[in-house]
Amino acid sequence: MSATTSSSTLQEPLTPFAVLDRSVIDANIDRLERRLADLNLPLRLHVKTSKSVDVTRRVHREGPQPIAVSTLAEAEYFADDGYTDILYAVGLAPAKLDRVVALHARGVDLSVLVDNTDQAEAVAAASRVSGHRIPALVEIDCDGHRSGVRAESPELIEIARILHDGGAELRGVLDHAGESYFSTGAEAQARDADAERAALITAAQRLREAGMPCPVLSSGSTPTAHSPSEKGGMTELRAGNFVFFDLVMAGIGVCDLDDIALSVVVTVIGHQSGKGWILTDGGWMAMSRDRGTAAQKIDQGYGVVATLDGEIIPDLLMTGASQEHGILELRHGSGGELPELPVGTRLRVLPNHACATASQYQEYSVVDRTGDPTRILENWPRCHGW
């Protein structure tokens, strides 16, 4: 599926639905491209945020370039659009190797991610049986956030040896500074980026000293990608959230509210005036359950509320949500007045976590705030499933 043109406005589709502002997307892309040009470092775009070839084409204007995916469904979807250099950047479940091999048979250079000997042995065995040397990267734990092996761990060499000697291709090492999403300000994010880089350099040096290749050093997260830090030694940088940004990124200082390209249109369906509530038809199914700003200095509830043309309504938040109901009210401590929003009024809500919110929708309605911000120009489909 590909984009379709539209002649409608944000007043027409049934709510809730997802909206993208393409002028904001383009500005976000230009910002990171300037940063990477200064570093002379290539981007491996992580497509898990948008899961849309139409969004990805805003980055890859001259045709398919390297991408990272979070599901094999994404890999297959992007392969159908001509993408051949794909990194499956989630620890591999061995049962999925048949699909990995099938993609290789189609001519896709799909690399996989491992962090234990069981995974490595499965990849090596599948390589021998299929006749395809499946490329694999070893995941390095740079901050204790989630998965991976420590750069100094003996297990790193053991995993790499299984891949290298067992018939697979040891392509390199990868890490992800997941804790950077909790680091506020450029200084803290630069420290995360430095730790990310140091872990990969240490791991690569150990592999090379053990007589094994390590051509790829892949690092990345949206906060560390934008940090003013040294990137020497890295061979690629991964980032994906930056295309849309969200309230979590704004809360840690990576972007401003005006840089958030994704919103959800909801309709006012009622009021509870005694409680100071405005009810909408967009609950957590529309916005997701992600409450990523709850631990930040400023809690944005389930989302910041704007008018249909994108103007932020001061201190109005989605503070509560059930499955299909959203509760809007003034931020605690606000000295403002609850706006009069009659039943039928349409609003836009900016999300905490763009990846989670986008996943609720089959397509994006695309607008451009440099013109009429309520006119839908196109509809961009997106990938679903695993």
From TrEMBL:
Highest taxon above the source species = Bacteria
* UniProt keyword Lyase present: yes
Q: Which InterPro entries match?
A: Ala_racemase_N, D-amino_acid_metab_enzyme, D-ser_dehydrat-like_dom, D-ser_dehydrat-like_sf, PLP-binding_barrel
| Coiled coil location | none
Kindly indicate whether the keyword rRNA processing belongs to this entry.
no
Identify the EC number(s).
Answer: 5.1.1.1
What's a Pfam family this protein contains?
Ala_racemase_N
State the family it belongs to. Belongs to the DSD1 family.
Name this protein carries in UniProt: Alanine racemase
Q: Could you tell me which species this protein originates from? A: Citricoccus muralis
Kindly list the organism's lineage. Answer: Bacteria, Bacillati, Actinomycetota, Actinomycetes, Micrococcales
